[in-house]
Amino acid sequence: MSDGVTTRAVRLVAAGEPPPRAVEDVRLPAPADGEVLVRVDYAGVNPIDTYAAAGIVGDTARLPRTIGVEGTGIVEGAAEGAGLVDGARVVVTGSGLGLLRDGTWAGGLVAPREAAVEVPRELDPTQAGAIGTAAVTAHEALHVLGRITADDRVLVLGAGGGVGVVAVQLARIAGASVVGQVGSAAKADAVAALGADRVVVTGAGDLVAEVGDFRPTLVIDPLGGGFTPAAVELAAISGRIVILGVSAGQDIPFPGRTFYRKGLSLLGYAGLVSTPERRAAAVRAVAADIIAGRLRIPVDEVVPLGRFDDAIARLRDRSVFGKVVLATQQ
Q1: Among residues 35, 27, 42, 8, which one has the least CA distance to residue 326?
Q2: Per-residue pLDDT for 32 more than 90?
Q3: pLDDT tens by residue, 185-199
Q4: How many angstroms separate the most distant Cα atoms in the chain?
Q5: Structural domains in the chain plus CATH codes
Q6: Which segments constitute the Enoyl reductase (ER) domain (predicted)?
Q7: Burial of 265 (0-12, 13-18, 19+ CB in 10 A)
Q8: pTM here?
């Protein structure tokens, strides 16, 4: 791939529900100073991609735009001073990809240098394509905000989701004990196989009863809604709750008295304001754990680029365990 090459890309034409989008041919520009040209081979599918398509996040004035906030590929052109050589495998994430500028659901893209993190060539590319968003979120929620130690007791809500499957494993790698919550019995055995000491199949209403005497010192909460107040009830004295999503509802009935009497900390993770340095450190740490065999990102399905609507549908019906990845060269 070189300057002037045309690539296939999933283009968002206008924001809305359902969002008008289609696979189209796009001419890639030459990389400017501090940019790299990447031949993308795999790209993750994330809830934020559907939010961007609906106009909830991202710049709706910059349309049409290629969707996709994470992916992986091979550098095939770097402007002077970019610090990467042709042939390097990179994970691309952050810096407005898919939100403020063209993203990863394409055969190639031009990205800012800080959005391209070099990873070892032996890293499985399908795993690499799924690192940039959910895995980075899990790493930062546990290590940066949660300050996890081997003495922690960790409750991972939504443990079968993209963040949850990585959070369970990272907590175990850190030496902590882990209880995972899933909403479907079909995912329970798979979460247990990732290293959870116990898995509870329950909704928000029965979470406190199902978790029982386990008093988490750290809760990873990508759900919000009724799950967050239940986490407050369950949390140990001086516990930390990291909230990073509200897929169960953004309006949270908060038990304030219980919260302050326990001396709890509620921490919000915002990937959109994470620094490039933090993202790069998280990508490299997760990649090292995958290569060493300590961690794997369950890739539920690899879908050809032309079938991107199927991937989105699977995400929305919550049938995915872990991640769906687009094969962008197919």
Answers
A1: 42
A2: no
A3: 999 999 999 999 999
A4: 62
A5: 6-130+297-327 (3.90.180.10), 135-271 (3.40.50.720)
A6: 21-326
A7: middle
A8: 0.92
